[in-house]
Amino acid sequence: MNAVALLAALAGSTASWSAPQTVSAPHTFAGPLFGSNDSRGGALVAWGWQDDIGQAAPTGAGAVTVDRAGSVSPERRAPAGLVAAQGYGAGRSLLLANRQIDKTGQRWRLTVTDGATTTRLATAFILFRPQLSVAPDGSAIVAWVEFHNHRQIVRVATRNHRGRFSRPITLSGRGQTTVLTAAAAGARSFLVAFARNGRLLARTHSTRGWSPIHPLQRAQGKTHWQLFASRDGRGGLELVWIRHRFTTPGHPGVRELFAAGHARRWSSIQRLERDGAVGPSLTFAPALVLTYAEGPNSGAGARLRYLARAGRFGAPLDAAPPQGGLRSVSAASAPGQGTVVGWVIPTPSGDGGGIGYAAATNPSGADFGPREQVTPNEAAFDMRLLRTANGVRAFWTARPEGTGPSVPVNQVRTVVRTALRLPPAP
Question: Cys-Cys with 61: which of 82, 158, 317, 339 at CB 3.0–4.6 Å?
């Protein structure tokens, strides 16, 4: 029995998902997955891909949609250099791409595509991964960092509803910016947060324009920040971040998880976890929920928190007991299925592949039912759950033919697959 089959046999979970369907052409590498819902019950999943390895390796991107009837479309081409994708409105989407256009890696072209219209936002030395956020009405923000004369400059472009994107403006023109995030809530409401010179800072936009820089938190020693932002579904904006303080003599490293909301003003900062938070994700299920892995890598659990009416996240709910290497936590909801949380557990083979699992809230909403196996006994990697018209659907990247040192790179085949969560048996 191979390692994947052994792990599945030990799980003892009851299958409640359809047989997998492959929705992409095979490539050497594929992912990460960008998954989101539009406003009318549809969904979008997009990913980048690469064939073979090396500087001259062909690259590109693909996408599929799920329509209002729950049918998955054939794969279509997406812009090469894809770094973000998000659905909105009635089956519409924005696709953000950032492509290197020189041999030195110091010149990049940033574009955003809506249907047949592609807008060039910048051609510059762009650092890090540009950020995209789209509100249900089509209002959107793109944020990125440009390098100019030893300065790391935060730039943004926005649009109201489905209008044209504005000319880029500078939100922070000095210092060393290391990470950023952005969110759009509609009605000209935007948020940009970034870490600069050891401080977490934010600016918000309303009908009155951009606010002054608001300081949120300071680093503690050598610190790595991870930032995540979303609209809150009530006209406000929510920011979640990890402050990872590295280990120093006499001070063990910690991964603290925090949150703060902004409506007319910033709320007080809420510390959600004192240590161990990994891979946060914000989504609507149907209210805003936060999912993440919590605990050491040797035994992390899949955790969920709902955003309460007071604008603060509630008590944690654990969808799975601690398991080694748990990752790729996401959530979705559908009528009659509650909130479903999914995650991936690596196999003992050590090649990075794993098996996807999920659990749904019980009718009371206070705890979770039994674990369900989502992906078959194959090497699954990134997995995302999405709401569709006929239930919660999982998408994941996988190598059904195997992976690992024994498989030459030119024989590695990575595909995107999907399965639908089936209604409970009567």
Answer: 82
Extract the tokens encoding 114.
Answer: 């809506």
307 or 405: which leads in pLDDT: 307
Three-state DSSP class for 5?
A: helix
User: Percentages helix, strand, coil for the chain, rounded to the nearest 5?
Assistant: 5, 55, 40
Residue 12, pLDDT score: 41
pLDDT value at 351 more than 50? yes
How many other C-beta atoms can be found within 10 angstroms of the C-beta atom of residue 221?
A: 11
How far out from the chain centre does Cα 128 lie?
15
Structure tokens at 88: 């909105």
Taking Cα atoms as reference points, which of 157, 156, 154 lies closest to residue 179?
Answer: 154
Q: Is 146 exposed, middle or buried (0-12, 13-18, 19+ CB in 10 A)?
A: buried
- pLDDT of 401: 77
Per-residue DSSP letter, 57: -
Edge to edge, the sheet with strand 254-262 lists: 223-231, 237-245, 254-262, 270-273
> In what helix (H) or strand (E) does residue 157 lie, and over which residues does it extend?
strand 151-159
* CA distances to 77, 165, 285, 342 from 86, in Å: 15, 16, 16, 20
Fill in the amino acid letter for 18. S
Listed residue (2, 121, 19) closest to 373, CA to CA: 19
- Residue 72 near residue 80, CB atoms below 8 Å: no
Q: Are strands 92-100 and 223-231 parallel, antiparallel or unpaired?
A: unpaired
Q: Are 184 and 190 in contact (CB under 8 A)?
A: yes
* The dihedral formed by the CA atoms of 289, 224, 147 and 140, expressed in degrees to the nearest 10: 0
Compute the average pLDDT of residues 335-355: 87
The verdict on pTM exceeding 0.85 is yes
Q: Percent of the chain beyond pLDDT 70?
A: 93
Where does the pLDDT of residue 149 fall: very low under 50, low under 70, confident under 90, or very high at 90 and above?
confident
Reading the block at residue 169, the tokens are 């403006």
**pLDDT, tens digit (0-9, with 9 covering 90-100), for 156-188:** 999 999 999 999 999 999 889 989 999 999 989
CA 374 – CA 417 distance, rounded (Å):
11
DSSP, collapsed to helix, strand or coil, labels residue 258 as strand
Question: pLDDT at residue 97 above 90?
Answer: yes
Beta strands in 101-218 (DSSP E): 108-114, 117-124, 126-134, 140-148, 151-159, 169-172, 177-186, 189-196, 199-206, 209-210, 214-218
Give backbone dihedrals phi and psi of 40, rounded to 5 degrees, phi first. Answer: -120, 20
Other Cβ atoms less than 10 A from the Cβ of 260: the count is: 22
Q: How far apart are CA 210 and CA 204, in angstroms?
A: 6
Q: What is the DSSP letter of 138?
A: S
